[in-house]
Design brief:
It is built from six helices and four strands. The chain is of the alpha+beta class and 178 residues long.
């Protein structure tokens, strides 16, 4: 029998770590953390700057500041959304799809805390400025489904709101929406 086969046979028959008679592998203990390490609400309320890219994938000067799912605004909207869904069931089937899309856009719009479409310094000369309000954001999300889908995906990632978080919106870690 070759040395390689002998070694393989021994490994196959060897007791597994943590099994009977074999101590478990030592793991590095987690660093001590206080209660504050688990508190997500304030960071979710602060929001995260999300850089926008064009549908072609090119960089743009535009951004959104997006709240997380643990934010106060999202929690309020979530309970309202449950009522809206109940109301959608009562609609005629032909109206239900459009109403559901509209409800989704309004629901996600509460997550957008600020945006660059109201900043004259980065908008094209003579372009209309859009204040960041529920109506404008919902319309934008309806007309830009790629942004709507990405927001929906990103805001549920709590870790996005914790990496390198400084508490100031201008210093938050950037993510990109394509």
């Amino acid at each position: 029998m070759t040395q390689a086969r002998k070694t393989a046979k021994k490994a196959k028959n060897a007791p597994k770590r943590g099994g009977k008679g074999v101590p478990p592998a030592k793991t590095k203990p987690a660093p001590p953390v206080g209660m504050e390490a688990f508190m997500t609400r304030q960071r979710a309320n602060d929001g995260q700057r999300i850089e926008l890219q064009t549908p072609e994938g090119d960089k743009s000067p535009h951004f959104l500041i997006v709240r997380g799912i643990d934010s106060d605004e999202f929690q309020k909207a979530k309970s309202k959304q449950a009522r809206v869904i109940g109301e959608l069931v009562a609609l005629p089937e032909e109206e239900r799809e459009d109403a559901a899309l509209e409800a989704t856009c309004k629901f996600l719009a509460v997550l957008v805390k600020d945006w660059s479409f109201s900043d004259a310094s980065i908008m094209p000369e003579g372009a209309e400025l859009y204040p960041c309000n529920l109506e404008n954001v919902a319309r934008f999300l309806r007309e830009a489904p790629q942004i709507r889908e990405k927001i929906d995906e990103l805001v549920s990632r709590r870790s996005l709101f914790f990496r390198n978080h400084s508490g100031a919106l201008t210093n938050t870690r950037n993510a990109s929406l394509t």
